[in-house]
């Protein structure tokens, strides 16, 4: 019973803490964060673009007071770019230097065998830390007091890279053939994000907690806007949210995400709008929608949308105005 | 209990690995059972890893964690409380009991109150009651618990088919002490207590109903997808020409699934080739001229050949069904498939590559079949058409696939044209939906056509299709 109490408390604490940092979570998200920390498991976050997946990792780093290392995945990303690489140039220089010094070193060695023995006496520095160029993943493992590691858009990387991540994600360690195994001093908190452009392998999924963040509902989006664009006046905020929620119901190529709602809200503030007017909406649709065909199809529906998104709340006379202008435009 | 839940999830087509089961156990420990919504989120995040699985998980969670812990099924509780009302009254005065039972049925509210009262009063001491006592006392909690226990004794976790429902109900009843109850009823009848016996009988009937309901739900939960899997398996073996219209939908789904599997298997192999690493040996060799100073670095690379594929499909009559699925399959594979040009023919061949690129493959196929299907098969002319359109672009990297029954209505089978393809192309594959035993019978020209094929085989089920395409991909990468 006490365990359960602490779990619920911890989760609610997390929600409050994140909200202070401007990230509005919900129970689902907070549970995932709680588990990720408790079980020391990576968290795979999926969802449509722009719902705050990357933001979640950033907020976590801020919340825990840790640094964040971000690894952006792309097709062709391999361990040389993600983990470590030998500094070939430096190594080549080293051989050049070695060659010049070789004569001095070999002094006194009469036979070939002797000189080989002498050579072997030297430390093998060729593949050593001095020539090692660390990359994000190795850096994350070497961080002293924990770190937030964000592996962004894992779905953009190749299958092999995914397979290569497995060791890191399950044991928080990496094997470098020439140096041995590097184990994390403190397990990093790992976030993986995916837009689902391709199916992530089962092996990877198995090792992660899986969190799906959908588009937020009106209430949560409202809170998000409140946190992110506090300048926006309350009734206008409701209008903005209603309108965006309506847009998501339409059949669009790319429905507007939270980040677009925020951008749009900022636009409203920037242009000092008091009400959502039809003309204004029409002119700023490009903030919300990113495809020409989407914009066109919304424009034709605009009067209806404006009416519907404002009709339910008529207590505000300004809204009434807006509605009329919408009707006039029709 | 976790194991049992995991089994149910697996039945609902959610893939849960043993390691994930362990994670789930850990979660139970961290979170406990009491906070349902958090438990649900937490388990969902560990066990269900795609959106579809999430939905299935939610459903399974609701069903599973409702049954054992929350209120007993409404039917049982209602029925029992009616019985209870009757029972209590009958204890006071036997003459009234009949009418009271009537009123019990007429006024469910009163019955419900009675039920609550007795549950609260007797829930605790249920352990060693016999079934008769439970029924007489109408002890809901005890009955429910007994049913659960009996169910696990009867091995309901292994239930697989709906036809087992009767058997399991019977077993559960027996485990709950049916024989005892029957004996008791008989005894009462003999002892003249017909009224009470009657009530017990009624209680028994209601209990039986409740048990049946319980078993049905349990089985449904556990076997939700078994039937579908069985069906898909069967469908993948069935001859495509024998396919029923109603199976089309499952079939499409199946093809999509198989195609995805093939695609993921082969994309891995192809991509491997595109990686570059320092090739020490070649670097050394390339720089010997510079006195060992490494000027030019050589990178390891594997050349990827992108073979071209030309497909010619017979869409007349008997072969149409197979062709249709073949093309469907092929285009579901566009991720890993090299560029494909497809032609269909009956009496003339025509290219349909462009219309097949559309999203709505089904409609595209219909259009193609309308345009080119229907005529009587003419291999000779169709081969000529194909040659005119593609022969120039055929080289050693090209694979030519012909799908047809090789029955040319005693006309020119076009084998001489095929020979030209054979000489130029890397491979010519002939897929014939007919079994090998009827090749070369009647107007089948398999012998003539087959002479100019690197490979010929029977192909009339999805399983065959998968194998053919798998081979094709393996050779091409």
From TrEMBL, chain A:
From the UniProt entry, list the residue stretches annotated as the region Disordered: 302-330
InterPro entries, per database record: AAA+_ATPase, ATPase_AAA_core, CbbQ/NirQ/NorQ/GpvN, P-loop_NTPase
A single Pfam family it belongs to is AAA
Question: What SMART domains would the database entry show?
Answer: AAA (SM00382)
Domain of life according to the entry: Bacteria
- Domain AAA+ ATPase positions: 39-217
MF terms from GO for this chain are:
ATP binding; ATP hydrolysis activity
Instruction: Quote the protein name from its UniProt record.
Output: MoxR family ATPase
| Biological source species | PS1 clade bacterium
From TrEMBL, chain B:
Biased composition (Acidic residues) is annotated at 80-92
Bias class Low complexity marks the residues at 93-111
Q: Which domain of life is it from?
A: Bacteria
Pfam families according to UniProt:
VWA_CoxE (PF05762)
Region: Disordered; residue ranges are 72-125
Q: Composition bias, kind Gly residues: at what positions?
A: 112-124
Q: What is this protein called?
A: VWA domain-containing protein
Recorded source organism is PS1 clade bacterium
